[in-house]
Structure formats: C-alpha cells, structure tokens
C-alpha cells in the first residue's frame, strides 16, 4: 500500500522506464560541471541537486510504498560508481543522501515518512561526527510529549541542500539521567543551522559541514525510536536489514573514483610524450604494466565487494515473518565489511600509482587526476572503511572479542 501520494508513485514509475545508469549517462556533462562548481562552493550547487532528484537519484533505495526503486546493494553500488567516476564529490552526495534517506525509514512511523517523502526533493542529512570548534553542547531534555535538543555535529554531507536533518539518540545525553536520549530526532529545514566548517581538499565539494541546533523543540510527531537504525521489519528489501548499508556506499565511491582515474589516465597516455622522452606514455612498457595491474586490482576489489554483498543479502532473505533473517550470521557479515575496507584502501593505492605514472601532469589543478587523487585518499580515510578494519576483523581470527561497534550493528533489536 502506498504511503506517499499517488503523484509521487506515478512519477517514480515513469522514471523507471529508463534504467538508472542510462539516466545518469544522460546528464553526465551536467554532473561534471556540477563537480567543478562544487569545488568552488564546497558543496553541491542547488541546481545540480535538484537535477539529480529529478532523475530519482535520491529515492532509488526507498521502497515502492515511498515512491522509490527498491534497489539491492549491488544495484546501489553500480549507481554510486557511475556518479563517482564522473566526480568524487558528486558521487559522495549521491551515496550519502540516498543512504540516509533509506536508513531513517527503518523504524519510521508511516505518518512521518509520508510527511518527509511526499516532497519529491526530500533529502536527509546527518552530522554525527565530533563538532569542529566551539559548540553549544550535546544535550537534550524532555518537554511535554516532545524534547528540546542542543547539539552540534560534523560531517553532515549534502547539508546545504537538505530538507531534513537526522540525529540519533546515542549522540546526545538526557540532562535528567546523563544517559543517551530515549529517542532519535528529525529536524525539518529551518530548525537546524549549517555551520561552515568543511574546508578540505578531498571530497571538497560534498558540503560536509557541521549542523547545529540550540534548544530546538522536537514535537512527538518528529521522533524516532532510540535504535532508529535497527534492522527493519517494515520493508522486504534486505538492504533495510543489511548492517553494512552505510559501509558499502562509501566503498562504492572509492571504486568509482578509481575507475574514473584509470579511464582519465588512459586518455592522457594516448597523446602525452613525457619531457625528455620520445614516445607516448601508451607505448611504454612500464605504463602498460601499471595500467594492467591497476585494472586487475580494481576489478578484484570490486568483485570482492559485490560477491560479499550478494551473499549477505541472499542470506538475510525475505522478512523474518516470511522465513528470512533479521540480522546476519557473523560468517556473512565480516567478509562484506572487510571487502569494503579493502576496496577503499586498494583504490587509494591504485589512484596513487596512476597519478605517479602521469607525473607532473597529474599534479596540475586542471587535471582530473589531481582531484581524483585527493578524493581517493579522503574516501579511504572514512571511519567505516578505514585501514583499522583490517586489525579489528583480523583479531577475531585469534579469538579476540568483536569490536563493540560491530556488535551494535549485528545484534537483534
């Protein structure tokens, strides 16, 4: 049964007559221009965000009841790769906005879902990192049936174009108890402030600023459960029970940036004759070797991610009421998590070698390889796909306990 209005459903069905990857290819030039502009603005320009929404790019993870395309993990990764190969910051905004839109509905009451997603341009951001610089605190208190929240958090990617901001319970303490809040919170545009803090090199155009709320009242109709991202029993797509949803999205950006860098280098190598030499890059054995190795490493990393996500979501299967699982067994979870970290770290290394092979040309600000080097490094820095997961997973093979963060991801509701 549809939750949103029929015009939203009809619009989405009309879009689906054209495959998503074809829709993206149709606006490739605009996305490339948006990436250039985003470097100057330090966020995606509004016209580009709206254009992306127009082709359904923020709704593809949503279920059909909410006017979405209900894509699987594999299909989501393909979309993010395609956008990230055009521009890393554009791809990052695609993954974070589609991801959060899909995550917040896991435990969301239908009335609130209707209120948010009856807007075709709905885009939810979430600043859950440590605040940058002075901040008002991270507290909340009950106020009648609602709450009052004071909070500042970082890494709210896409925030300049967001229509809602999400804040999970664990990020704020109840002033009365000193414990995490007993609710999570949704703030519509106008009830959160964007604090201009995103001044970085990699993923420069992602608009990952801080968000701030000061003594902001949250009415009961804008509340979510404390464990708002717990695996969902509302929608059949196993993505809503996949504990690596937010993880494979980041890996997909890294994979796309790496694909774009290899393709851009091949274009460069067709005509560049390095200073002091007499042959083009394409005719040099060491360059041919490096490109062959890069292709193999990228394809292997991608296959590892795709295979483990397919296995994980097949393992989860249908909803528990129909014989499926609410949470995965550890043996299906750890390979999917490891694959994502491996993809990010491998892509960082591959893009570094490609940039080195391009030599000075790859360092110039007008070269796409320069931006891709920065973006690959930044993607690999993200906590969800950082090098630290090698140790965290590796220690379990020797009988050491799981990291607490992993336990939270896979434990039952």
Task: Describe what you observe in this structure.
The protein is of the alpha+beta class and 413 residues long. The protein folds into three domains: 6-121, Butyryl-Coa Dehydrogenase, subunit A, domain 1, CATH 1.10.540.10; 139-224, Butyryl-CoA Dehydrogenase, subunit A, domain 2 (Beta Barrel); 238-410, Butyryl-CoA Dehydrogenase, subunit A, domain 3. The protein is 46% helix and 11% strand. The protein is built from 13 helices and nine strands. The protein has helices at 6-15, 20-26, 28-41, 46-54, 73-86, 88-103, 110-117, 245-269, 285-316, 330-358, 368-381, 388-394, 404-410, and strands spanning 124-125, 139-143, 146-156, 164-167, 173-174, 184-188, 193-195, 209-218, 223-224. Strands 5-2-3-8-7 form a five-stranded mixed sheet, with no helix packed on it. A four-stranded mixed sheet has the order 1-4-6-9. β2 and β3 form a beta hairpin. α5 (73-86) packs antiparallel against α6 (88-103), α9 packs antiparallel against α10 (330-358) and α10 (330-358) runs antiparallel to α11 (368-381). The longest helix has 32 residues, at 285-316. The two termini are 25 Å apart. The model has no long low-confidence stretch (mean pLDDT 96).
CATH architecture of the largest domain: Up-down Bundle
What is the succession of H and E elements?
A: HHHHHHHEEEEEEEEEHHHHHH
Largest sheet: 5 strands, mixed
Structurally, how many domains make up the residues? 3
The Cα radius of gyration reads 22 Å
**The CATH C-level class name of the largest domain:** Mainly Alpha
Class by helix and strand content?
A: alpha+beta
Would you identify the regions where 5 or more consecutive residues have pLDDT less than 50?
A: none
Distance between the termini: 25 Å
- The CATH superfamily of the largest domain is identified as Butyryl-CoA Dehydrogenase, subunit A, domain 3
Mean pLDDT: 96
- In order across it, which strands form the biggest sheet? 5-2-3-8-7
Number of helices: 13
In the CATH scheme, what's the topology name of the largest domain? Butyryl-CoA Dehydrogenase, subunit A, domain 3
Tell me the β content: 5-15%
Number of strands: 9
């Amino acid at each position: 049964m549809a939750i949103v209005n029929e015009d939203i459903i009809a619009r989405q069905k009309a879009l689906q007559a054209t495959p998503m990857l074809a829709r993206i290819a149709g606006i490739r030039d605009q996305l490339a221009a948006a990436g250039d502009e985003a470097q100057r603005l330090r966020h995606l320009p509004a016209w580009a965000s709206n254009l992306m929404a127009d082709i359904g790019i923020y709704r593809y993870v949503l279920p059909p009841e909410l006017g979405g395309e209900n894509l699987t993990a594999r299909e989501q990764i393909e979309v993010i790769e395609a956008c990230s190969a055009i521009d890393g910051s554009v791809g990052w905004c695609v993954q974070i906005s589609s991801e959060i839109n899909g995550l917040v509905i896991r435990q969301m009451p239908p009335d609130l879902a209707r209120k948010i997603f009856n807007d075709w341009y709905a885009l939810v951001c979430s600043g859950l990192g440590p605040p940058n610089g002075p901040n008002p605190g991270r507290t909340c208190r009950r106020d009648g049936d609602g709450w009052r929240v004071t909070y500042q958090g970082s890494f709210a990617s896409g925030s300049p174009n967001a229509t809602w901001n999400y804040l999970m319970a664990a990020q704020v303490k109840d002033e009365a108890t000193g414990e995490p809040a007993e609710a999570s919170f949704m703030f519509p545009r106008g009830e959160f402030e964007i604090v201009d803090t995103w001044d970085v090199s990699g993923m420069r155009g992602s608009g990952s600023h801080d968000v701030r709320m000061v003594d902001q009242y949250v009415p009961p109709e804008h509340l979510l459960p404390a464990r708002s991202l717990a695996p969902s029993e509302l929608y059949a797509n196993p993505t809503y029970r996949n504990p690596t949803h937010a993880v494979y999205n980041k890996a997909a950006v890294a994979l796309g940036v790496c694909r774009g860098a290899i393709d851009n280098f091949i274009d460069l190598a067709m005509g560049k004759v390095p200073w002091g030499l007499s042959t083009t890059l394409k005719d040099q054995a060491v360059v041919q070797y490096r490109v062959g190795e890069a292709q193999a490493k990228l394809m292997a990393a991608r296959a590892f991610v795709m295979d483990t996500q397919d296995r994980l979501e097949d393992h989860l299967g249908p909803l528990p009421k129909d014989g499926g699982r609410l949470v995965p067994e550890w043996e299906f979870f750890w390979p999917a998590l490891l694959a994502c970290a491996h993809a990010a770290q491998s892509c960082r290394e591959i893009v570094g070698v490609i940039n080195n092979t391009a030599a000075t040309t790859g360092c110039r600000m007008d070269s796409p390889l320069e931006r891709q080097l920065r973006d690959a490094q930044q993607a690999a820095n993200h906590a969800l796909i950082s090098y630290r997961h090698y140790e965290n997973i590796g220690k379990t093979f020797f009988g050491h306990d799981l990291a607490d963060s992993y336990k939270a991801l896979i434990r039952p509701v």
